[in-house]
Specification:
The chain has 79 residues and is mainly β. The protein has a domain at 1-19 and 70-79. The chain has strands at residues 2-7, 11-22, 41-42, 50-51, 62-74. It is elongated and about 55 Å long. The model has no long low-confidence stretch (mean pLDDT 81).
Length: 79
Amino acid sequence: MVSILCMLLVYCVLFVATAVSQAQLSISNGVFLTKPDPYVEFSVDGQQKQRTDVERKTLHPSWNTEFSVLVTVTFNEYD
């Protein structure tokens, strides 16, 4: 979902929502001695990182987590 508020098409603030649902990790060449504890970090424009919960000891994590951030876009007009 994206909501847009614009003022004279010069400055826009976007509210962006995104979801992290699941992943499938693969072991190539037996790299992991034990199953990993995966998580996802999410950050936009240097804002504070948001992160999912850690899924313990799994190659098939499932988070079903939604993140929301505000993004500012500035348009410059040139002649």
